[in-house]
Amino acid sequence: MTAAAAELRVEGVTVRFAGLTALDEVSFTVAPGSIHALIGPNGAGKSTCFNVLSGVYRATGGSVRYDGRELTGLPPHRIAGLGIARTFQNIVLTAGTVADNLMLGRHGLTTAGFTSTALRLPKAVREQRRHRQRAYEIADFLGIAAHFDQPVGPLSYGDRKRVEIARALCMEPRLLLLDEPVAGMNPTERLAMAATVAAVRAELGISILIVEHDMGMVMRLADAVTVLDFGRRIADGTPESVQRDPEVIAAYLGRQEESA
Ligand SMILES: Nc1ncnc2c1ncn2[C@@H]1O[C@H](COP(=O)(O)OP(=O)(O)OP(=O)(O)O)[C@@H](O)[C@H]1O
User: Fold this and answer.
1) What does the pLDDT read at residue 122?
2) Is 45's C-beta closer than 6 angstroms to any atom of ligand 1?
3) Which atom of ligand 1 is nearest to the CA of 231?
4) Domains and CATH numbers, the chain
5) I need a labelling partner for 77 at 20 to 30 A (CA). Which of 87, 106, 181, 247 fits?
């Protein structure tokens, strides 16, 4: 059984790339069991923040703690091992079937070694069967069970995005980091994905930190919203309060004018 969701506390995180401050002392807390959105105009630092949380980038300063454990400096697989799984802005799947991709998500939970698996020793076979069963349940939860033994390549964009989320859930995380889960989807797929995200929290009890440009989705789903602009946190609160915040409105309007 997965351990209960815990608090993610981001404190004063700074990331500098050769002269550019991508994150400037950013702080926010993702409450256990909540859906928390991280939003902001293009280049605000959202992906950089995800990369710090998942161990891809090392922060220049500040701290990230999950369930009281310091994450900064840990490699991605150790962070995943603590129960934090992520998806990417662009779908990253390996060739093979849906099942193959989901079993990769189970890898960190497998106790049988490579040799006993390769020799198909009974214990390893039983373990593989159990993991496959759980992967199937998760595929079913995501609505992609019908494709379980099919190659991922020909699947629709929406279904491939679901495979990616299912693979992250196969790690049995306590916190799921979703990077733009509805980007590139049509309105029907977006609504279905919003319902899925809500179900992940409601039925699996997993906390979710979501980066998303679709404001309708953010406002409908999120309990709390943190807004970044040019690497700084400019607002943090309920969707309603953030939506009314003059600095947030100015940040979004300003960027629209720039790109007009
Ligand atoms: N590896 C890197 N090296 C140098 N600069 C980077 C790197 N990654 C991001 N940046 C810069 O850091 C800033 C923040 O980028 P980031 O991708 O985190 O923003 P974002 O909010 O995710 O944007 P978008 O909504 O467009 O995905 C940008 O100015 C970007 O060019």
Assistant:
1) 66
2) yes
3) 14
4) 8-259 (3.40.50.300)
5) 181
